[in-house]
């Protein structure tokens, strides 16, 4: 079957999920015909994504979060105003996405939390079904709750619903098993980790590994580094225009996102510090690494709260790396998480393929009518052939067979 991806361009997680899904579909003989990726003015499209996804990639301008002046936490009010200013550009993106969906002749669209996909289906209503995938859809689950309150969480749930208007199914990635919510078309599935993550053999190293969504958090890292220059650290960011490596000194290096290098440092680290992106937390949990989460916006606040519930680590307001080192001494991984992750492929493939019969029924109606008509004609011809054959054998044979067909034998009438 043919699939089209639409991927939100914020952060590393949606890209790695799309890579995992791309490779999963290929293993099962399916084809991803195109990938549409949202873009912003503050982030580059990572090289690791373009190298791993061997199909046409098209960019479009998409709503995104605006960081604070310190380039740390996201400012919701600034984000809203910035996106309003680009409303006309986003309408052009919506029309462009709709045209690509139509021309792709895809059987299914998979949306990786891109808001404009929901708007496309609300305005243009393409006939091709789409499936949404992300941890955020768990927040819409009627039985799910988090110790997170306030207008920010309400806005997040509204935004999440907006990304999935008209979706055939919402696949909620979860740190742990949870029941489905059919009323909201939510099915809970394990995280999607790439095959190379599942094949890694973790080692206990000495360095601190980290990822920051916004580069302003580097101030916290460098403050710790001045106090503890003996602690080796490797941090990754997607700072626009940054070099592949920014070497501060022998024990502190910033890396532009490089997928293989990122995983190698994860495999051998002592502990992991992150701005609470769902995907990298899952990778750290799978490899048994303690995690400190420093959320950069409300979505990551929720990720962090849920990850703590699953035993990943703890949440903090800043990159308090000294606290992380202390926490790592007594940390014990969650052994059930690995087993849950290893069920991902079969569960996710079943859920995605299940939308085909229901939502493509109209495409098969004409085919099925013709098939049924041909089947009836064939059956009628077979019955006629039998009737002619019996007629040739003699009137009595034909008469007995006819009475049997109607449930009564002539001999029974003589009793």
Polypeptide structure, described:
- This protein is globular.
- It is an alpha/beta fold.
- It contains 18 helices and 14 strands.
- Helix 4 crosses helix 5.
- Mean pLDDT is 84; it is low at 67-73, 362-369 and 395-415.
- The chain starts with a strand and ends with a helix.
- Strands 3-2-1-4-5-6-7 form a 7-stranded parallel β-sheet, with helices on both faces. Strands 10-11-9-8-12-13-14 form a 7-stranded mixed β-sheet, with helices on both faces.
Mean pLDDT: 84
Sheet with most strands? 7 strands, parallel
Content-based structural category: alpha/beta
The end-to-end span amounts to 63 Å
How much strand? 15-25%
Q: Please give the share of residues in helix.
A: 40-55%
Radius of gyration: 28 Å
Low-pLDDT runs: 67-73, 362-369, 395-415
> If strands are numbered along the chain, what order do they take across the biggest sheet?
3-2-1-4-5-6-7
């Amino acid at each position: 079957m043919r699939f089209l991806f639409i991927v939100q361009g914020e952060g590393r997680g949606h890209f790695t999920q799309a890579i995992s899904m791309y490779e999963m579909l290929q293993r099962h003989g399916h084809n991803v015909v195109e990938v549409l990726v949202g873009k912003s003015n503050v982030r580059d499209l990572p090289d690791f994504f373009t190298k791993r996804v061997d199909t046409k990639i098209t960019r479009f301008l998409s709503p995104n979060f605006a960081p604070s002046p310190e380039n740390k936490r996201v400012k919701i009010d600034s984000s809203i105003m910035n996106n309003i200013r680009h409303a006309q550009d986003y309408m052009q993106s919506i029309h462009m996405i709709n045209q690509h969906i139509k021309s792709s002749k895809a059987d299914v669209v998979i949306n990786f939390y891109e808001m404009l996909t929901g708007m496309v289906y609300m305005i243009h209503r393409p006939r091709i079904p789409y499936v949404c995938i992300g941890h955020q859809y768990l927040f819409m689950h009627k039985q799910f709750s988090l110790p997170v309150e306030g207008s920010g969480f309400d806005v997040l749930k509204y935004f999440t619903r907006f990304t999935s208007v008209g979706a055939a199914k919402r696949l909620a990635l979860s740190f742990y098993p949870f029941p489905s919510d059919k009323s909201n078309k939510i099915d809970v599935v394990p995280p999607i980790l790439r095959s190379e993550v599942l094949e890694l053999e973790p080692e206990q190293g000495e360095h601190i590994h980290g990822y920051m969504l916004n580069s302003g958090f580097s101030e916290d890292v460098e403050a710790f580094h001045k106090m503890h220059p003996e602690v080796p650290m490797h941090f990754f960011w997607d700072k626009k225009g940054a070099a592949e490596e920014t070497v501060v000194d022998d024990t502190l290096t910033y890396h532009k996102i490089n997928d293989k290098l990122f995983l190698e440092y994860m495999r051998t680290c002592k502990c992991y510090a992150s701005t609470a992106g769902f995907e990298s937390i899952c990778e750290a949990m799978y490899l048994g690494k303690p995690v400190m989460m420093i959320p950069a916006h409300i979505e990551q606040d929720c990720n962090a709260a849920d990850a703590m519930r699953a035993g990943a680590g703890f949440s903090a307001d800043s990159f308090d790396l000294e606290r992380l080192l202390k926490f790592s001494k007594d940390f014990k991984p969650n052994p059930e998480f690995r087993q849950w992750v290893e069920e991902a492929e079969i569960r996710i493939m079943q859920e995605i393929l299940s939308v085909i019969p229901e939502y493509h029924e109209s495409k098969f109606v004409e085919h099925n009518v013709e098939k049924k008509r041909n089947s009836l004609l064939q059956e009628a011809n077979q019955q006629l052939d039998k009737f002619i054959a019996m007629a040739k054998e003699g009137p009595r044979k034909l008469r007995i067979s006819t009475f049997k067909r109607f449930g009564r034998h002539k001999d029974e009438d003589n009793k």
